[in-house]
Amino acid sequence: MRILIAHNDYGRYSGEEAVVDRQIADYKAAGHDVATLRLTSEGARDSVFGKIRGFFAGIYSIRGRRTMRRCLADFRPDIVHIHNLYPFISPAVLPLCKKNGVPVVMTVHNYRLICPTGLFLRNGHPCETCLERGNETGCILHNCEQSLFRSIGYALRNTTARLSRAYLDNVDHYCCLTEFQRAKLIAAGFDKDRISVIPNYIELPEPTDKPFPQQGFVGYAGRLSYEKGFDLLMEVARRHPEIEFRFAGTLREEEKATTLPNVTLCGQLGQEQLAAFYTQARFIVIASRCYEGFPLALLEASSHSRCCIAPDHGAFPDLMRDGHSGEMTGLLFRPLDTDDLEDKVVRLWNDTALASRLGHQARQNCQARFTKETVTRKWNDTLMQIADTCNSARNRQDNTRHTSALR
Questions:
Q1: Is residue 315 within 8 Å of residue 178, measured between CB atoms?
Q2: Which of 6-15, 145-154, 179-188, 386-395 has the lowest mean pLDDT?
Q3: Out of 56, 100, 139, 346, which residue is the most buried by the measure of CB atoms under 10 Å away?
Q4: Which domain holds residue 224?
């Protein structure tokens, strides 16, 4: 099968880029012929011109359409796999795929099809105003991006896509990462029969005989930003100077790191360094204010037999529940509640037997639900099914036109 992957890279390498890169490799390993349409947002916000260009491109990207048209003509794909389109590809490319008879499947990494910011987050709290209203005005009224220019731009591009039915009429199938995401799309009016759930996966490292760390540290892996709850965990660290905390990830430009003697900012870690980070940690904390899509940190920690503390919202209660026993493989805290987060951190820090047991259960859950073999098989089956369905539909249309012509 000839697969064209379209993705607008973010300003900095993120979990989405990691998933896209891995999927390209998986498709090639499965024998598919793969081409990519990739533009980038790197440096787009560094100048006024770049910001203005991104503002209008997100609504309708001439460059994106031109590039897609060339890819369709030169590569002639059997299917187009969409990831992120904003801002420089834009939903304006989708009707081109429809016009050329090429089916489109889309991985839904976040909530951007419903919420202009993609986070369901306002003023540090989960917000579903745009879903409830059925429009994007809430993003402007509440200035969700903390920049009226960006809030208007995000709202306009979503409004344009909704009113033109760019997604509804031109995407043949949506693949959500979690059941929680799928439920939100259905609530927004998307056809439930065109939505599947295919999670992220992890390649499990070989089991280790190393004992559970009796010293260790509390670990955090991911972007160090407000929506990720970076500040909440830093407050817990401030309250407990006797506990060591280590943060792996890049600091957002607008974030200010508080210097504490028990906190180490490790920066962006390579693959081997990150593996060592997980095995040396006692457990991992995901403190997100937002619902999240499917944080890779959860899988990475689980694969190394480390449990997580995560907020009790979004998909976390499902992702951290063992598929067989129904038991939790980590601890959930009340979202945005620093006191409850502190309680959970202290509890696991003082009870290494519990942290070790939950970590073992987390790896078993990961092995049962989120392995490469299981997920890639779902993707291959889904792509074949979409291609067959779309080909059958085209054949019926051709037969109808032929019959009409004979009459």
A1: yes
A2: 386-395
A3: 139
A4: 218-369
Long-range Cβ contact pairs of 230-238 (< 8 A, separation 24 or more): 230/255, 230/287, 232/287, 232/289, 232/336, 232/338, 232/341, 233/285, 233/287, 233/341, 234/258, 234/260, 234/263, 235/338, 236/338, 236/341, 236/342, 236/345, 237/262, 237/263
Distance CA 142, CA 24 (A): 38
Asked if residue 212 belongs to a domain, the reply is: no
Domain containing residue 287: CATH number: 3.40.50.2000
Is there a domain that residue 188 lies in?
Answer: yes
What is the sign of the dihedral through the CA atoms of 319, 323, 326 and 330? Answer: negative
| Predicted local confidence at residue 402, as pLDDT | 46
Tokens for 182?
């799928």
Q: Does residue 121 share a domain with residue 100?
A: yes
Average pLDDT over residues 183-211: 91
In the structure, what pLDDT confidence band is assigned to residue 236 with cuts at 50, 70 and 90?
very high
β-bridge mates for residue 79, sequence order: 3
Asked whether 278 and 284 are in contact (CB, 8 A), the reply is yes
Question: What pLDDT does 394 receive?
Answer: 61
Do 187 and 313 lie in one domain? The reply is: no
pLDDT single digits (tens) 78-88 = 999 999 999 99
Q: Looking at residues 1-8, what average pLDDT do you find?
A: 96
> What contacts 393, CB < 8 A, 6 or more positions away?
none
- For the chain, how many structural domains are there in total? 2
Report whether 197 contacts 175 (CB < 8 A).
yes
Q: Is the pLDDT of residue 257 over 90?
A: no
Can you read off the two tokens belonging to residue 109? 């990494």
8 Å CB contact between 386 and 79: yes
| Judgement on whether residues 248 and 178 belong to the same structural domain of the protein | no
Contacts of 163 (CB under 8 A, 6+ apart): none
Residue type, 189: G
